[in-house]
Design a protein that fits this description.
By secondary structure, the chain is mostly helical. It has 2 domains: about 50 residues, no CATH class; about 70 residues, AhpD-like. It contains 7 helices and no strands. Helix 1 crosses helix 3. The protein is globular and about 40 Å long. The chain starts with a helix and ends with a helix.
Length: about 130
């Protein structure tokens, strides 16, 4: 693998945690291996490794963008990642309030619902 892939995998593990990445790697097949390489090098090895902004800020941006674009499936994963990135519940609600103003209340409302469920699950397991 490339240096970008290796750095991306390191960052991915830092942000999402070893358990999540290990599950994703175990479920990887020959079919989706090119996609997994793409996101590891692109998202994690390029964007998330850039130190211009912090992982906390990237968490907030990512959650807001997922909500604003209606890509709700990954919100729980990125809420769980806040335990590693330092984005607080106060940070997350502010990001979703921005979504409400700039992208729509229904999208923010659904994202908040998912965040509340995920935070409750996180508290149950801790």
């Amino acid at each position: 693998m490339t240096a970008r892939y290796e750095k991306g995998m390191q960052t991915r593990r830092t942000v999402l945690g070893d358990a999540h990445v290990n599950r994703a790697e175990a479920n990887k097949t020959q079919f989706d291996a090119p996609f997994q390489t793409l996101i590891t090098e692109g998202a994690w090895g390029t964007v998330w490794t850039d130190d211009t902004i912090s992982h906390r800020e990237r968490s907030m941006l990512t959650l807001a963008l997922l909500a604003a674009t209606g890509n709700f499936e990954e919100i729980p994963m990125h809420i769980r990642a806040t335990a590693n990135t330092g984005a607080t519940k106060a940070d997350v609600i502010q990001a979703f309030m921005h979504v409400a103003i700039y992208a729509g209340v229904p999208k923010a409302n659904h994202a908040i619902k998912l965040a509340k469920q995920t935070y409750a699950e996180m508290e149950e397991t801790s």
